[in-house]
TrEMBL record:
Residues 3-220 form the Tetrapyrrole methylase domain. Keywords: Cobalamin biosynthesis, Methyltransferase, S-adenosyl-L-methionine, Transferase. Pfam families: TP_methylase. Its EC number is 2.1.1.152. It comes from Paracoccus haematequi. GO terms for biological process: cobalamin biosynthetic process; methylation. One of its GO terms (molecular function) is precorrin-6A synthase (deacetylating) activity. It catalyses: precorrin-5 + S-adenosyl-L-methionine + H2O = precorrin-6A + acetate + S-adenosyl-L-homocysteine + 2 H(+). This is Precorrin-6A synthase [deacetylating]. It comes from the Bacteria.
Amino acid sequence: MEVWLIGIGMGRVEHLTLEAVAAINRADLILIPRKGEEKAELAQARRRICDEVLTNPQTVLAEFDLPVRDASDGYEGGVLDWHEAIAGCWERVIAVHPGALRVALLIWGDPALYDSSLRIAARLADRRAMTVHVVPGIMSLQGLTAAHAIPLNEIGAPFLVTTGRRLRDEGWPAGVDTLVVMLDGMNSFQTLDPAGVRIWWGAYVGMPDQIVEAGPLSEAGPRIVAARQAARDRNGWIMDIYLLRRDPGAGAPGRGSGAAARP
């Protein structure tokens, strides 16, 4: 058995590579996760992609409900238990289709960046005779820099991709002037001293509902907080990402006076 993790960018047909389209059409079974009513649009986007590019009449689409992550055992323990529960969901759906030798999942963005699918697939590979294949997709950080028409890095300089939780807990990492922050549900940029820092923010990047804001952090920050809340209230869910860049040579921004406490 083969499991194919296919990057689909921001869920638009235009973001698919020719390799992704070919992999979709080679699949015997495509698993489509459901994440509750609030995120029903994500499952619908995957189905729309299949409606537009799937020409193999033998391919079966099978939806399943994703389990909810339990954080009572701490962050890392909760994530590991969640991965195991999802792997169990995959196994149960696959067992209903014993003739499926190529099983595919359409992965938002790219499977390599802050996505659990490769780790979950590895759990199945350890238990079953199966191989894992990956088709890369456009990442949200590429969508962000494209939306703002900016380079990801300064000339010859490094950048760091991190999470909102780590930014809140640890502040600005040493040795880099450019940060890309993902998985931030708490506007963690508010914990930084905004002096000398610019922000480029985007929600639903690459999607029809794309929203972007940019500017000095002191000015753009409040606009982003308001826009993010309005978008979440309107749509019931939000996916956003932002890039922070400080003036070269400036010290790492310290905590602002309103720095958030550890969650």
